[in-house]
Amino acid sequence: MKGRTLHLICLAAAAIAFAAPASAVVKIAYIDPLSGGAASAGINAQKHMAFLVDRVNAAGGLNGEKLELLSFDNKVSPQESLIVLKKALDEGARYVFQGNGSAVAHAITEAVLKHNERNPGKEVLFFNYAAIDPALTNEKCNFWHFRFDSDVDMKMQALTNVIAKDPKIKRVYLINQDYSFGKAVAAAAQKMLAEKRPDITIVGDELHPLQKVQDFSPYVAKIKAAGADTVITGNWSNDMLLLIKAAKDAGLKVSWYTYYAGALGTPSAIGKDGVGSVIQVSEWHNNVSPELDPVAAAFRKRYPDKDDEFSYYRLMTAFDLFAAAAAKAKSNDPVKVARALEGLKIATTVGEVEMRADNHQVLQPMFVSVMADNVKYDVEKTGFGFRTLAKIEGRDAALPTTCKMQRPG
Amino acid sequence: MLELVTFSLLNGVVYGLLLFMLSSGLTLIWSMMGVLNFAHASMFMLGAYFSYQLGLAIGFWPALVIAPLLVGAVGAAVERFGLRHVHRQGHVGEILFTFGLAYLIAEVVIMVWGRNPIENRVPAAIDFPAFALFGTSYPFYKVLMMAISVGMFVFLWLAFKRTRIGLVIQAELTHPQMVSALGHDVPRVFVLVFAVGSALAAMAGVIGGFALLTEPNMAAALGPIVFVVVVVGGLGSIPGALVASMLIGIVQTFAVALDYSLLDLLRPLGVSMARSSPLYELCSIKVAQAAPILPYLLLVLMLILRPKGLMGTRET
Questions:
Q1: Which of A89, A133, A304, B66 counts the most CB atoms within 10 A of its CB?
Q2: Where in chain A are the domains?
């Protein structure tokens, strides 16, 4: 009798001991603004993360292990990000997702590099889904950083391809935010327009303070005085909304070639003034295919609020590539996953996607689209949506890189 | 060139008048009650949100009147049930109270209307061109904004100089005990001042809401510039606030149009600078790039050189 009880206890203990590794989880840290001025973008992406983690788990997880999402608020500050990154690592996160702000991404990629050098066996991967400073996959590249968004130069490549085909465009004005990203947009526009359309005059190259301008009327007066027919801008959030608003008040009639006209909240604020004249470049929009993507439809069902638009298609691509790499490596170990990710190709609903091995920059199809009112699927319940003008295949967007990738031992 | 100058002047005046609408209430409260009201821009934001919501139900014109009245009532309640009790703890307590209140209001706005900008468009009732200039039509709502701002100035100026209550308020500023002893209800006057100040901010919010963006950060974005207006104009001076607003509006607007840097200025004098020079970055900043910080430069200079402001009656 006594012996049997002991036996049972032993069995139970063994069962628990064996159950533990089976119930192990892969911890993923999401670090982005969840409070303050940029919170709306951060919270929207957080919902995408929660949705996509559940999607992976519903499909059985990675190599039988479930994903667990840990969220951290960095208030878009590089310093704050380093503090929460430390916390995330202490809590056992091995994969870090971040996107808002190239300055933040630079801080994280350096911190991750240092951490991995000092802690062999506990490596961490950085999945960047939106910070698009070209330097991150060129002179500042490292083995642990993977970018799932097209960088500034690739997007400008797509925009200028469309501009090159429009003979009506003669005078272009550049207006951008005065920091690394805005300057990168201006530089890329100057260079690519000179190559593709030397007949175009760049009539202005303006930098304004980041998110500080309340009234853009003076800038619009300047654009008008310069006689521009087209404006190229990387502005996002309020800088984008206020610029378009001021332009409408002043009766400025130009075409807008933008990076972020489709970003959360922007289509609502632009409204019907943008129809036919506001153009964006993105990896996806609601009308890329005749029917709404089933994943986007499921997202809409789970988050029906108009502030919760499905907009980060590239996050889904990131998770699909992640899952494919883990399956290929037959392991969830970050070093093995990183090696498997290099050069990995998968098919998505918009076309083939590849993670470049030489600089860890994703090559994905991009769409240049224009705001329209006669589309099947609108955005933010406005009645307006985007219609594709041109599609650029991933491999056609590849640019040379200066990255000298240092791979571990 | 003439076109650019004309439009810059017009834009500067419009922006200046918007700033005046926003800051007149603050200068009123600050000078009468000695309360540095950090929640003032929040009242502006509430005005924008209230008028948007009311506008959907009852149309623009009634909302233009009712939204400021509602916000005025909120202001009166804040004074009566909050500030009055904190007042006993002195100015630090008051500042902290209004500081906290600003955060509180922003959070409530996020809870009710969400984090993203709401689609607050120019109401159809006033969405038509007022006149054409150089072939460009000028929106009517900007003309309305100017008219309301000027009306606000006249109202405040007359209320101070020509009415009994204005005289009582002015007397209270320096001799509250004496005024109280003469039988005037000082606390009630304070409630009134705070309510009117809040209502004025809300009135600015009604117009500012669709002229700018209606979003939960609008208070935080406009808060600092309002203090600049009040300090530069001088405490307690309504004409000072008007002059300071116009000055800031016009300086900022024209600065944007100037594509010159310190380097361009020095070049005719035979000074040149190598790109490698440590001062190159600083000297090559164009005036246009520095435009939004000019008001703050003005604030710092004013506090150093003339602490009572352009038209103020006492030291800050």
A1: A133
A2: 25-150+295-364, 153-282+365-396
* Contact between A96 and A29 (Cβ < 8 Å): yes
Determine the CATH number of domain A25-150+295-364. 3.40.50.2300
Cα–Cα distance for residue pair B237/B31, rounded to 1 Å = 8
Q: Is A271 an interface residue toward B (CB < 8 Å)?
A: yes
Q: Which of B115, B117, B253 sits opposite A39 (nearest CB)?
A: B115
Across the interface, of B139, B215, B252, the residue whose CB is closest to A249 is: B139
Percent of chain B with pLDDT over 90: 42
Q: For A381, which residue in chain B has the nearest alpha carbon?
A: B119
Answer whether A25-150+295-364 and A153-282+365-396 agree in fold: yes
Is the pLDDT at A278 greater than 90, yes or no? Answer: yes
Contacts of A225 in chain B (CB under 8 A): 1, 3-4
For residue B2, what pLDDT is reported?
Answer: 83
pLDDT given for residue B53 in this prediction: 95
Contact B288 A206 (CB under 8 A): yes
Instruction: Find the residue in A nearest to B214 (Cα).
Output: A269
Q: Rounded to 5 degrees, what are φ and ψ at B99?
A: -60, -50
Write the ipTM: 0.84
Average pLDDT over residues B277-304: 84
CB distance A221 to A248 below 8 Å: no
For A288-323, how does the pLDDT look when each residue is reduced to its tens digit (9 = 90+)? Answer: 999 999 999 999 999 998 778 899 999 999 999 999
Measured in Å, how far apart are chain A's first and last C-alpha atoms? 57
Q: What domains, with CATH codes, occur in chain B?
A: 2-305 (1.10.3470)
Mean local confidence (pLDDT), B174-188: 84
Q: Do A271 and B119 touch (CB under 8 A)?
A: yes
Provide the whole-model pTM. 0.86
Q: Would the pLDDT of A266 be above 90? A: no
CATH superfamily to which A153-282+365-396 belongs: Response regulator (3.40.50.2300)
